[in-house]
Amino acid sequence: MTEPLLSIRDLRTVFHTDEGLVRAVDGVSFDVDRGETVCLVGESGSGKTVTGESITRLIRTPPGEIAGGEIVFDGRDLTTLSDAELRSLRGDRIAHVFQNPQGALNPVYTVGWQIVEAIRLHEDVDEPTARSRAIDLLDRVGIPEATRRFDDYPHEFSGGMKQRVSLAMALATSPDLLIADEPTTALDVTIQNQILDLLRELQDEFDMSILLITHDLGVVAEVADRVVVMYAGKVMERGGVFDVFERPSHPYTRALLECLPGRGEGAAIGGTLPPATDPPDGCRFHPRCSYAVDACSEGEQPPACAADDDPDHVVSCVHYEPGGDPSVVRDDRETRLTDGGGEGQS
């Protein structure tokens, strides 16, 4: 088997604040294989964005700090690289698309100039060559009349078109890994679907991997190969998209899915995320979990255990530890879904 393009092990990112130490990412591990799409999913505040920004050290230091772990990209541990070495990768082999395209674009420069600069920063090409490539990129991401729009400013583009321009900038150097943080959140449903279709097309064309950060499970179901479910800085569950959606194992994953219309009861998850400066002992989710037992509130977050004897589908829950009983979660859920008019029987 080939090594994953990106391998994150026990990543810990903290922020030093007046209120105390914020453990935004606290022991996160997952892989991204070449050419696949992995989705980080969870509520706002789960640590998804900080995880993505930690990969290329985009977090502000201070107060932020990568306190431990490995981030291995194509065989190199990024945590050991100098700032100069990391800059040579950032925007070249690893590119970012952010949730707010307006914030990623400089309002005083034309969109074409900004793409040209992104190209020339990483490649030794003259300006006419870079301009030609920038126009081609604008055309590829679906900007009508790309040659004419090259000299327009960001404020002359709609939200959806700005997101397409951000994609063009990210793809300027044909990256191996695209980290897309909520790229469709601020867009209407029609534009969201267009952007997702575009991501799939560009992934095939550029043969790149995508790490997609989102809270939208509908997006996850549509584009993901594998899913990493995060909560309060921890990974609750990870596995193939089919396994996670059809056999969700952690109560938090199940609760997220049951919030979807037509999936289950459609009720919101009770309670709120714990304060990042004072997380609870044991499983981070246990104060909100209807399946919690005494062991859930003791010690550290439960280790990742295989669900259904599948080593690629793992869950951090005491009910899946040796001696535990996963049916406590699953049987109860199936009864409620059937009796409550949710999915019902097939």
From TrEMBL:
- Name the keywords, alphabetized: ATP-binding, Cell membrane, Ion transport, Membrane, Nucleotide-binding, Translocase, Transport
Xref: Gene3D superfamilies: P-loop containing nucleotide triphosphate hydrolases (3.40.50.300)
Positions in coiled-coil regions:
none
Per the UniProt entry, what are the Gene Ontology biological process annotations, in alphabetical order? Answer: peptide transport
Q: What is its EC number?
A: 7.2.2.11
Q: What class of enzyme is it?
A: translocase
Supply the name of the protein: Nickel import system ATP-binding protein NikD
Which source organism?
Answer: Haloplanus vescus
